[in-house]
Amino acid sequence: MTDATLRNELDVASLLALEAGKRILRHLEGQIEVGYKENGEVVTDADREANHIIRKGLSTAFPEDAIYSEETADSPQRLSNSRVWIVDPLDGTSNFIARGDEFSVSIGLSINGKAVLGVVYNPTRDELFAGGVGLGITRNGIAVRVTETGDISQAQISVSKKEQAELVKLNPDLKLVPITGMAYKLSRVAAGQEDGALSKKRRKEWGSCAGVALVLAAGGKATLLDGSDICFNKVEQKQPLSMLAAGARLHPLLLHALKHLLDDIPEKPR
């Protein structure tokens, strides 16, 4: 794949993320109707409408590609396709329902299991992060990249608001910043707004593919907590371990400082 081809993919995904984000914002103008999936997770009409926009646009532009989205029934056929769009049409639905400003649209492209392109759009803050392998990344059209810090004591690490208190106890030296949504956390790391992002829980592919692609394209590193690569388009929805992303200098230092977290996590699935 050439950079020119990836540029076309990036342009299409960016336009779709913007369109889906605008549709999501319309739902904030009135009452938000909340429903529940079979697994008990919340879902809204905004999730479904954003999903429709993105799926229709991607299938029209790239009819040979598979689409793996949180709001569409999974198909095992995607496993045999080398190119898979991995989509969370509204990452951070609970934050959206609470009328917060940290939810986002996440569109990632995986080729042969590797995250190569990502677009994440936060509609309330009007922040569009877009980038891919060989292209670098931009935030609202301006080139950005990960920070170059190698000082753990000064680094700011974004974490889930639910995990912040627990992680502070495990490592009180870390400067933790609570932010909702893995896609948005990873995007901010890629853009140098925080130095790293950590998730103790196993993350689903939908909310991580685009963000991982952005971090890698911005010169950073994103791995599982044992240092192994993060792979996509697998049978299991969740990654086998927790996840860490940071600039290239900081990442190995954080891995070493956080290795004790692996003791609290069940054995990595095979």
Q: Top keywords for this entry?
A:
alpha+beta, globular, Fructose-1,6-Bisphosphatase, Chain A, domain 1, five-stranded mixed beta sheet, 270 residues, seven-stranded mixed beta sheet
Question: Care to describe what's here?
Answer:
The chain is α+β, with helices and mostly antiparallel strands and 270 residues long. It folds into 2 domains: 3-144, Fructose-1,6-Bisphosphatase, Chain A, domain 1 (2-Layer Sandwich), CATH 3.30.540; 156-264, D-Maltodextrin-Binding Protein, domain 2 (3-Layer(aba) Sandwich), CATH 3.40.190.80. The protein has helices spanning 3-27, 45-61, 93-97, 164-170, 182-190, 209-217, 250-257; strands at 34-36, 42-44, 66-69, 83-91, 104-111, 114-122, 127-132, 136-139, 142-144, 156-159, 175-178, 196-199, 220-224, 243-247. The chain has a 7-stranded mixed beta sheet with strand order 3-4-5-6-7-8-9, sandwiched between helices. A 5-stranded mixed beta sheet has the order 11-10-12-14-13, sandwiched between helices. Strands 1-2 form a two-stranded antiparallel ribbon. Strand 1 and strand 2 form a beta hairpin. Helix 1 (3-27) packs antiparallel against helix 2 and helix 5 (182-190) runs parallel beside helix 6 (209-217). The radius of gyration is 17 Å and the shape is globular. The relative contact order is 0.14. The mean pLDDT is 91.
